[in-house]
Design brief:
Helix content is 44%, strand content 15%. It is built from 23 helices and 15 strands. A nine-stranded mixed beta sheet has the order 1-2-13-12-7-6-3-4-5, with helices on both faces. Strand 6, helix 7 and strand 7 form a beta-alpha-beta unit. Helix 3 packs across helix 19 and helix 8 crosses helix 9. It is globular. The protein starts with a helix and ends with a helix.
Length: 546
């Protein structure tokens, strides 16, 4: 594999580890835990992995030379740092016992079921240290939820003498890890399952998980691009740039990029929902800022839009919920109809209120809402061009205002969607260190006999040496939610908290940003140079932890 100068230099970077993980460890156990919601139901569904204590690693004088082979799976969308979880895990299991072996299952959970794997040796591992992407073994979105999958996976686990499986994924993937851990524990198969918190969206977060890996790098990457656009915007002074960023269920990325770049407008889905805003109200709010700036002679600006915004507009959210249930129950009747017949079928089967909402939507958006779901039963919101929908609606509204004398400017829009650009970026120093520590923690959880746990690292705004590493029972994060028309146990997503420090810091300055041009250009992610440039946490983390 040919390497760039960056890759060669980056391969030599040695991730920093918390003091507690630098040598032998012992486990300190906390109090018993319970799930964040629906305690009785979750306890009944997970009797063997419910109520376990949170654990923390402390330095020990006694070395653990545990003999164990481990399997690793990358699940779901890519996030910067995934390779460092694998290298941290590899280095630690080899340190425990040089005979230990690591097997990677190819293209996600499906690799376990289909017995598609490769042994990860030092030669392979060394090629991928501190690199972005998941290309070492690939990722996939197969859901692990059926008994025949668990049993098929067990065949290869037994053949390779694997002691534990580590699943690197987001909330859905870690929910699957929890189900798998429970099944193997109930059957007393002696196979441990450990999860790792991955998602650039930042919504796998709670009292125990301060941030999911990849969020830091992705936000820095998007902020660099948004800063470049802001500079272009302020140079040409003739376009409004509508920039959609990833985050299907939460606006953490949009909010962090706004805190870093200070755009004129940033929409926050959770606020739209809390204020029960309609699509028309959002458009009016945008147009008021556009008209104000035009009156000052500024016919340009930047707008950041979270990918999942459309689902958070309450009327559309209610429509999507009913559509999800309708398609889950009657998808077979519906899928072979032509486009017009599909529209008529939906209108005939929706409640009166939701049918009225469906009819008011632009045809392209209405069609997108009624198409195939992702494997988790969700609308594929990334395919809905919300940035174009909003700019087109703004253009129409401003034309009306012009006739009424309420608007005197010129409006021209450019559109951007930053998604794939951030998912496989080379990890920042933070994500390189954080992921390596997560991989090391996962190895220690296995060596200490734990299953149904997620590896965690806390105190992350301090220097890496002072981070606190351990594990949290996955059941602690779960509640019951409706998926594909039925109630399922899932990890609760963390949305932007409107009374949290990051949103409050944004809300305190957004009116000023809307009226004046206060752009900040963060520049490229810096790996080398002064600590105050290279090793800064996200503004979200810094504000949350004061």
């Amino acid at each position: 594999m040919e390497k760039s100068a960056l890759q060669i230099a980056r391969a030599a970077y040695q991730p920093k580890l918390p003091k507690a993980l630098q040598g032998a460890v012992k486990v300190k156990e906390g109090a018993a835990t319970q799930s964040v919601g629906n305690q009785e139901e979750i306890k009944q569904l997970f009797p063997n992995t419910y109520g376990m204590p949170i654990v923390e690693f402390e330095p020990s004088d006694v070395a653990n030379n545990k003999k164990m082979n481990v399997g690793i799976i990358l699940s779901g969308g890519q996030a910067p740092g995934g390779h460092n979880v694998i290298t941290g895990l590899f280095d630690q299991i080899k340190k425990l016992n040089p005979e230990n072996r690591l097997f990677g299952f190819i293209l996600g959970p499906g690799g376990l079921v289909d017995h598609n794997y490769m042994e990860l040796t030092a030669d392979i591992i060394d090629e991928y240290r501190n690199t972005g992407g998941f290309d070492m073994i690939g990722s996939g979105r197969t859901k692990l939820e059926k008994i025949d999958q668990f049993e098929k996976g067990l065949e290869i686990i037994r053949e390779l003498d694997i002691k534990a499986i580590v699943i690197i994924g987001g909330d859905d993937s870690n929910t699957n890890a929890c189900v798998l851990a429970e099944y193997y524990a109930a059957k007393q198969y002696g196979v441990q399952v450990i999860g790792c918190p991955k998602t650039i969206d930042g919504d796998l977060k709670n009292d125990q998980i301060e941030t999911s890996f990849g969020f830091d790098t992705a936000c820095k990457t998007y902020s660099e691009l948004i800063g470049n656009i802001e500079r272009d915007c302020n140079s040409a002074r003739k376009y409004w740039h509508f920039i959609k960023v990833m985050g299907r269920s939460a606006s953490h990325i949009a909010l962090e990029c706004a805190l870093q770049c200070q755009p004129n407008i940033c929409l926050v889905s959770e606020e739209v929902e809390a204020k029960d805003m309609t699509l028309n109200q959002i458009v009016d709010q945008l147009c008021e800022a556009i008209a104000y700036r035009a009156a000052q002679g500024n016919n340009f600006g930047t707008v950041i839009i979270p990918e999942g915004l459309i689902e958070f507009i309450p009327a559309i959210g209610r429509l999507i919920q009913e559509l999800n249930d309708l398609l889950a129950a009657h998808g077979a009747d519906y899928k072979d109809l032509d486009k017009q017949a599909q529209r008529e079928y939906i209108l005939a089967h929706l409640s009166k209120e939701n049918a009225a909402t469906f009819e008011t939507l632009p045809e392209g958006v209405a069609r997108q809402l009624s198409l195939d779901r992702d494997p988790h039963g969700n609308v594929q919101v990334s395919l809905i061009e919300t940035e174009k929908l909003l700019s087109e609606m703004c253009e129409a509204r401003l034309a009306e205002w012009k006739k009424e004398g309420k608007y005197v400017g010129k409006f021209a829009a450019q559109h951007h969607f930053f998604g794939y650009e951030g998912r496989c970026a080379a990890p920042s120093n933070f994500d390189a260190d954080y992921c390596y520590a997560l991989g090391t923690s996962a190895a220690q959880l296995i060596a200490n006999g734990k299953t149904g746990y997620m590896a965690i690292v806390k105190n992350t705004t301090a220097p890496a040496a002072e981070w606190i590493a351990g594990g949290v029972p996955i059941t602690m994060m779960m509640n019951m939610e409706r998926r594909n028309g039925e109630m399922k146990p899932v990890i609760r997503k963390a949305l932007v908290e409107l009374d949290g420090a990051p949103f409050k810091a944004f809300a305190a300055r957004r009116d000023e940003w809307a009226k004046e041009t206060r752009y900040v250009y963060p520049g490229p992610i810096q790996y080398w140079g002064p600590t105050e440039v290279c090793d800064q946490p996200t503004k979200t983390l810094a504000l949350e932890q004061k």
